[in-house]
Amino acid sequence: MHDHAETHDAAGCCGDADGAISRAERICRERDLQFTRLRRDVLVAVAGQTKPLGAYDIAERLSAPGRRVAAVSVYRALDFLTENGLVHRIASRNAFVSCGHSHTDGAGLVFLICRNCGTIDETTSPEIEHQLGRTLAKAGFKPTSRILEVEGECGACLGRSAEA
Amino acid sequence: MHDHAETHDAAGCCGDADGAISRAERICRERDLQFTRLRRDVLVAVAGQTKPLGAYDIAERLSAPGRRVAAVSVYRALDFLTENGLVHRIASRNAFVSCGHSHTDGAGLVFLICRNCGTIDETTSPEIEHQLGRTLAKAGFKPTSRILEVEGECGACLGRSAEA
DNA sequence: TCGCCGAGTGTTACAGTGTATCACCCGCGA
DNA sequence: TCGCGGGTGATACACTGTAACACTCGGCGA
User: Fold this and answer.
1) Does the pLDDT of residue A10 top 60, yes or no?
2) Closest CA of chain B from A88, distance in Å
3) Which of A12, A125, B73, B83 could, after both became Cys, cross-link A108 (CB 3.0–4.6 A)?
4) Closest partner CB to A112 (pick from B141, B147, B158)
């Protein structure tokens, strides 16, 4: 897992990598999929961050003197993880974040990307999902996937700039 | 302009390149910006399509035996055009489409991307915009820009597959 | 008129992102 | 034991985007 696993095992300090891992294990067991070492490592790398990581960043992090992880392998692992809803791709950044919500599809997922600190937050809004459904129906469009990403300044950064 | 300009000058046949051009000319006049040949050519190339074009596609289209247009130049023109709301970037495709709506920012722009035929449509939904505003406010997030892209099957393709 | 300046463009080089392809390993069932 | 399929390693390559510098051209003040 990671270096200071003993000092905490709940959510918190690092994007809750442990939680993501156990969720992944459960999902793979349920769907009869392999949760291999590479896939686990990639998920840990992504989950240990609130900022999005590029595939090449991940490859670099996982590579050590003894082991070289090529970007291709990372992409394959990321494909697997995104297909199973464990990580999300941030289209506007060409980067990936681990999924916080154990999320029911169609929850109206919104990504909040902070211009200032680079942190990515997720929210959901059933109302947006509902309105979007109406809009699509009116347009005669049958959706298979959607992305909603908002860039701006997060609450924490707003607070910091206000007090300065 | 384009080859058969006389046969029509309204909307229609080719994504309404002419309309886009005249809108661009007006905007540049209003804002005291230069609507140069390169910028016009790039806009024409993009506006003549309902499918999104990559920057390199555009460069290729604009290049002719006598003139070579480098991708860099296209990127610069695209930056200019997107800044002024004349074209939009489709983040999920790394590609660009011309903007149909003479659009007031904050209209709740939605891109509908057809999996099947590749066509991109725009709609707007003030209701979504409204809900999104509420959601962001609740999260304490101050937005500067947003993207909402939906992938799926467009009405035309649904019709075609139904009749088959 | 001369020279400067700034915007736009051309050009080269390069960094970052993503995919195709083939080889290899390894577990598993026939 | 053999073959098979999924996962991985490795190389090569295509596509996307940016940095840096040179050049042109029009405007403007000395």
Assistant:
1) no
2) 13
3) A125
4) B141
